Structures are given as C-alpha cells and as structure tokens.
Amino acid sequence: MSVLTNNLDLFLRAFAQTLQLFAISAVLSLVLGTFLAALRVSPVPVFRGIGTLYVTVLRNTPLTLVFVFFLFAYPLLEIVKIEPYTAAVVSLSLYTAAFVCEVVRSGINTVPVGQAEASRALGLTFVQMLGNVVLPQALRSVVPPMTSTMIALLKNTTVASGFAVFQAGTIRDSLSEQGENVLLGLLWVAIGFVVLVMPLTYVQQVFEKRWSVAR
Amino acid sequence: MSMVLFDVPGPKARARHKVMAVIGIAAVLAAVAYVIMRFIATDQFSTRRLDWINYKQIQISLVEAIGNTLSAFAVGAVLALVFGAIFAAARLSDHAWVRAPAAVVVEVFRAIPLVIMMFFFYYGLPVAGVKLSAFTAVVLSLMLYNGSVLAEIFRAGINSLPKGQSEAAYALGMRKTQVMTLVLLPQALRAMMPTIISQLVVLLKDTALGFLITFEELLRWGTRIGGDAVSFGRPMISVMIVVAAIYIGLCLLLTWLANYLEKRNRRNKKVVKLDGDRPNQVQLAESSAVLGSGSTL
Question: Domain range for residue A199?
C-alpha cells in the first residue's frame, strides 16, 4: 500500500496521461475508422481497394512495429519533426482505425437491406444514404464491439512505455529509479487498469444484452 | 462485397466513378511518391544502407529472430488454448464455486494490458526472488491474456449452440461430460474455428511486445540492425520494411488458414442448420465474439 500512497502523485499523473493519450487517439481513430468504412462500402472500386489495403496492412502489423516505425524510422526521413507523444498518438490512431473500420463495416452489414433500397428509391445520394440513414442505424448495433475496441485501445496505450512516452506503463521506470518495490508498483498499475476497464466491460455487456433482445 | 448499398451503376455513374477513381489513385500515388522522394532525398536505399542483407551473420541472426518469434507464438498458442479450454469449462460448470473464481480470473486477465503483465513477470517478479527469462515472461503473459480471451470465445461458442442439442443429449441419458465432449464441443469448435484462428493472429502479433522486455524476437532484431549507425549508417527504413513484410506475411498466412477453414466448414453438412429466429441471435452472439476477440488487437 505504501508504494501507492507514497507515489500517489506519480500514479495520478501517469494515469491522467494514459487517459489523455486514450481520449485523443480514440477520437482520431473513430473519425478515420468511420471514413475508412465509408471507403470500403463505397460504389467506387478503387476506394474500396484503398480501404481494404489499409485495413489488411495495419491489422496484420504488430502495434509495436507501428510505434517503432514512427519513433525510430520516421525521423530519419526528415519530413516534420514530431514529439514522441505525438508519434504515439499517430501510431495508436492509425492502428486502431483499421479495427474501428471493421467494426463499423460489420455494423453497416446488420442494417436491413430495405433501408438502403428505400433511400435510393427516395433519390438520396450515396453519401446522404450512408450519413442519414444507414450509419445512424449501424452505430446502434456497433456499440458493444466498439466498446471492446476502445478497451483494447486503452490497454494498448501502455505499448508507448518502450518509447519514452510518459504514461501508466512507465510508472515502473520511475519507481525503480527511486528504489521502490517494483513488484507492488506493477500490481497497483494492473489494478488501476482493471478499475478503468471493468466499468466499460459492464456497460458493453448491458448494451449487448439489451440490443440483442431488441433485434 | 454486396451491391446492397448502391445500384448497379449506369453510364453517368460509371463516368463519375472513373473520375473519382482517377482522383483517388492520384491522391494515393502522390502520397506514395512523396514518401519515396523522401526515401531518395535522405538516401535510405544507398548501397551502404542495404549492405546488411549481404552479411551471412545477419542473415543467420534474422532466421534465429524469426525462430524466436515463432517459438514464442507456438508455445504461447498451445498454452493459451489449454488455459482457455480449462477456464471455459470452469465457467460453464454447474457449480457456482467453480464458476465464480474462473469468471474472476478470466475477467481480470482480460482487463490487464499485456505490457503490464510482461513487465510484472520480467521486472516485478525478480523483486520477490523469482527470476524468469524474457522468453518465459512473454509466453506466460501471452498464455494468461490470450487464454482468457479464448476462454470467452469457447464459452460463446458453446452457448451459441441451440438448446435442443444438449437437451436431446441429456434425454438420451448422456452424462454431463459426455454431453460436452461428444455433442457440444465438436459443434462449437467447428463454428468457432475462424474466431480462434484470428485470436491466434493477435497472439502472433503480440509476440512483438517482447521487444519491450528485451526478448530477442524479430522486431528487436530489426531495431538492432536498423539502429546500427557504425557499419550501415542506420538502415532502419529498409530493415523495418523487411520486418513488416515478414509479420504481415505470417499473419496473412494464418488468416488465409482461417478463411480456408471457414469455407470448408460452410460446405460441411454436419453443421446444424438453425431454424426461425435463432440464426439471427446466434450470429449476433458469434459476431460479437468475433469482434470482441478481433478487437483485442
């Protein structure tokens, strides 16, 4: 307990940083992922191809590799200098966007065919149909799997530990510098994540139950 | 790809699509061209920076690194499958005193980031006097995390079967174990195979996290060679392209296996056809399990 109480400030700052990293990456990946999903169901074959290529490449690449690329390889190209923190946000967003895309796309598939047909009969364009009719309905059934994608993103922020980005995963470094008990420190970090993730899992299960009955 | 969201394009739409296709291709090409220009401007593919490919020592170490990644994957996968099977069985048990602890274990290990688990085993346990090798730490973490996810997949698979299956088996006088092993498991495994394999793809990708605890796997090899400023002038870009290609190749191979199994499964007549409103529900349960696992990233 003393490990936590003595370093409460460190723990709070680190977890706040984790949440910040999570929040920014979540918003970015949701936007990019939805856009990619729109590409993947678009009538233009080339757009579908681009979307599929992106998702295939990013989904089959380890997140750590994406991090290594943006933190070690990208600076060698001397394009725009970015902070490690920004690089972490970019890596997390790009990687998670591929998974968000798949979730949204599977959500679009759950919307009954008649909805799209009816919108076409009313003369809506593809973008109108997607934005006003299909996506709003798709997002409903997408909440449970999207929550687990976001939970995964929250946990994945710890990958940044290997790249000198301060967050919950780097608490260990600070503790071992101070000669504190690392074992207990890591236990507290683990408990912190359980505390953060459990409510989300609970919400997800509630939604899942409610909406699986509704359909 | 369904044609549900749009009509078969007419002449006008086709012309419009062609224009958009040209714009799309141009945008992607522009981005790629810019990156390649930067590659050339910073001289990433000079002979000095590509020289590492020619060294026998490095080639051997590459093979060793891939071997390390694959052995961590293989051991981790087997352990995770066993762990998952045991805990799925425990969670489906009729006895609350077996069910409850298993549920807690599965939920907790699903909630802890893999990185923290690896740190715990590699940096934390030595404090308590237990010293584990990086390989053991990686494999143990992979087992606990992916095992818990797999336990949920197995459970979802068995729960998605129609109730009539177990009822009929009980009516025939089978015991609990017989019902599970002879009736439920074979069907559930067949239905869950693609999901299990995609979770194994996740496991394969997660071996790269061993990088963070100095496990000598493919990615660590890549940063070592790629960071070598003295003999090769930091060939990080070329090395990382090779490493990424290897990872993507390995994962696609596994994914291809998953698709192959799914296709074969679809042809299989032994799969139960579900009637009425059941398919919808089962599909939902299945797809949520698929997504739930796939999104563990």
Answer: 2-214
- The C-alpha of B115 sits at a distance from chain A's nearest C-alpha, in angstroms, of 6
Please answer yes or no on whether A65 and B226 come within 8 Å at the CB atom.
no
Strands (DSSP E) found in chain A: none
List the one residue out of B89, B141, B110, B74 whose CA is nearest residue B295. Answer: B110
Q: How far is CA B111 from CA A162, B91, B296, in A?
A: 20, 17, 10
- DSSP per residue over A149-188, as a string? HHHHHHHHGGGGGGGT--SGGGHHHHHHHTT--HHHHHHH
Q: Domain residue spans in chain B? A: 1-42, 54-294
Q: How far apart are CA B267 and CA B255, in angstroms?
A: 19
ipTM of the complex: 0.87
Selected residues 16-35 of chain A with any CB under 8 Å from a CB in chain B: none
Count CB-CB contacts under 10 A for residue B129.
6
Q: Give the integer Cα–Cα distance in Å for A6 and A9.
A: 8
Beta-carbon contacts of B106 under 8 Å, excluding residues fewer than 6 positions away, are B87, B91, B148, B151, B152
Give Cβ neighbours of residue B160 (< 8 Å, ≥ 6 apart). Answer: B188, B191, B282, B285, B286, B289
> CA dihedral in degrees (A176, A180, A184, A188; nearest 10)?
-80
Q: What is the pLDDT of residues B88-127, one digit of tens each?
A: 999 988 899 999 999 999 989 999 999 999 999 999 888 8
Alpha-carbon distance of A188 to A15, in angstroms, equals: 11
What sign does the dihedral B289-B292-B296-B297 (CA atoms) show? positive
pLDDT tens digit sequence for A36-80: 999 998 888 889 999 999 999 999 999 999 999 898 888 888 778
Distant-in-sequence, close-in-space partners of B202: CB < 8 Å, separation ≥ 6: B146, B149, B293, B294, B296, B297
**CB contacts, 8 Å: A143 with chain B:** none
> What is the CATH T-level fold of the domain B54-294, as seen in this structure?
MetI-like fold (1.10.3720)
The total number of structural domains in chain A stands at: 1
DSSP A82: -
HSE toward the beta carbon, residue A4, CA cutoff 13 A: 10
Cβ count near A181 (within 10 Å): 15
Q: Do A159 and B251 touch (CB under 8 A)?
A: no
CATH number, domain of A131, equals 1.10.3720.10
Residue A112 CB: number of other CB atoms within 10 A? 11
pLDDT at position B215 over 60 = yes
The answer to whether A206 faces chain B, any CB pair under 8 Å, is: no
